Amino acid sequence: MSEIDAETARRVAKLARIAVPEERLAPLAEEFGRILGFVEQLNEVDVEGVEPMTGVTPMRLKRREDVVTSGGMPDRILKNAPEAREGFFAVPKVVE
């Protein structure tokens, strides 16, 4: 198990912007040590020849032909706009 001291736990808590009372630093350091020990244990697993996974069930994504179109539905698209003018989205001016 990796040894983490209270000072390291204090630094990690500060970096994470977490307020940790002084009396909780020692138990937090022990917990960090157990977590790092588990990670070290994972490094011992032989993963040679194992394909990386993006999910637990193998599946292929549905694909469609990539075709450039004009969209052909500006009225339907602009219906979602809070404000539209002359066939375009209208937005407030942000630069003077």
From TrEMBL:
Entry's family note: Belongs to the GatC family.
Keyword Transferase: yes
GO MF term (any one): ATP binding
GO BP, sorted A to Z: glutaminyl-tRNAGln biosynthesis via transamidation; regulation of translational fidelity; translation
Keyword tags: ATP-binding, Ligase, Nucleotide-binding, Protein biosynthesis, Transferase
Complexes and interactors: Heterotrimer of A, B and C subunits.
Catalytic activity: L-aspartyl-tRNA(Asn) + L-glutamine + ATP + H2O = L-asparaginyl-tRNA(Asn) + L-glutamate + ADP + phosphate + 2 H(+); L-glutamyl-tRNA(Gln) + L-glutamine + ATP + H2O = L-glutaminyl-tRNA(Gln) + L-glutamate + ADP + phosphate + H(+)
Gene3D superfamilies: Glu-tRNAGln amidotransferase C subunit, N-terminal domain
Function: Allows the formation of correctly charged Asn-tRNA(Asn) or Gln-tRNA(Gln) through the transamidation of misacylated Asp-tRNA(Asn) or Glu-tRNA(Gln) in organisms which lack either or both of asparaginyl-tRNA or glutaminyl-tRNA synthetases. The reaction takes place in the presence of glutamine and ATP through an activated phospho-Asp-tRNA(Asn) or phospho-Glu-tRNA(Gln).
Primary gene name: gatC
Pfam family, one: GatC
EC number: 6.3.5.-
Protein's name in the database: Aspartyl/glutamyl-tRNA(Asn/Gln) amidotransferase subunit C
NCBIfam families: gatC
